[in-house]
Amino acid sequence: MTKNKTLIRYFINGFIGILGTALVLFLSAGRIDWWQAWACICVAAGLIIAMDIIILWYNPGLAAERLGVKKGSKPWDAAILSILNLSGLARYMIAGLDRRFGWTYEFPFPASIIGLVFCVLGYSFFLWAVGANTFFSQVVRIQVDRGHVVATDGPTDLSGTRHISVP
Asked: If you placed Cys at 131, which of 20, 47, 54, 149 could pair as Cys (CB 3.0 to 4.6 Å)?
């Protein structure tokens, strides 16, 4: 697959993910005037856009790697990835149904804002790791085709300098 096709496919996957999240949230809620859902979509879109920028800037080879299960992956990785995707879909669907039917009490506004702040902070750590780890794949595999090496310290440097050693 050419580099341009890989990038286009990578961007389309992100767009479909955000669109799918919005559809599931709003269809299951039966309404679009739900600010928490809009906040969730904005945070998720921000994560995807930031991750795209980081990957393209620091680790362009990672875009193709993150597009799906690759040769050398364990068979259960595809199953685990599918279960995670389905559980995310179910989480959004249940949240929408909860909004529609009022199964739980609404969180106070300050609690919702605090939750969003912690969500953004957590995603920031995730993005830091994506930028620092050239091999940050969705599945566990030794990426021989990409010159995989073992990192010996945490995500401390996004300048391209890696403190790594091969055992």
From this structure: 54
